[in-house]
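Blinded run. Sample ID left blank on purpose so nobody reads anything into the name before looking at the predicted structure. Input follows.
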Amino acid sequence: MATIEVQGLTKAYGDTLANDDLEFSIERGEIFGYLGPNGSGKSTTIRQLMGFQSPTAGTATLFGADIRDQDALREVKSRIGFLPGEPAFNGSVTGEVFLDYQARLKGDSRRAELLELFTPPLDRKIREYSTGNKQMLGLVQAFMHDPDLVIMDEPTSGLDPLKQEAFNRFLRRERDDGLTVFFSSHVLGEVRRVCDRVGIIREGRLVTVETVDDLLQRGGKRVRVHTDPPLTKADLGLDGVVDFEAEGRQAQFTFTGDYDELFEALSQHRIVDVEIDEPPIEEVFMHYYGGPQRTEERNDAT
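Blinded prediction complete.
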């Protein structure tokens, strides 16, 4: 049984579909990245998975518990860690008082370990925290009871680069120990570094679900070639040459065709230097988001 199973999940706000017939599953020990810009429907999906909002149609299960059944969902929530996109803390208490309260609710067997990794100033009132300190406090509470599943909305928001990398290493270790992770993000680099699979959501609809490796492979390769004399796109005469640009004797393009044919075409020219790399994941992502968006902007609720 999948840890998370989403079946036709739909959420409508009036005439606007924030989530439109979503279908995907997440297996135990998998890090699943939910990718899309702000307003694409990521947070709405998460609020439904946690039982904070009811679906308009369809459903999902967490450890087999239907999200429409509050009693069943309540029974499995002790196995779930949660970090919302904007944690709502009581600013008048210290971080330590907040974690003590969370410990009484769900336990804190890993609290000390996590506080060595994430270091919010526990003796200060939360109202005095920076955005990064609030995020670290939220991460500690999400993981400190040693959950089997963690659901997070933009978990690295506000973290400095060193803490982001520490968080990524931590996630990979936890995944290797069997933790299942579902998190939304618009930070493409972190998705590539830590995720096993990604789902890309656009305007409430799931565009694709695939492994990060497959996503990058389908995006082709980025080719940079220095020739004498200069190379033109017509010189190649190949299908699969995208975004060809040339400056002086250097040309670069994305290639999605047959690589034997590419090498054969290049061999007809005097090559001074050539580099073939994976494209940035940002370029792959723009394959799904390069078209026009809806004219009306979604509000923060989606």
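Unblinding after everyone has recorded impressions. The chain has two domains: 4-93+146-216, 221-277.
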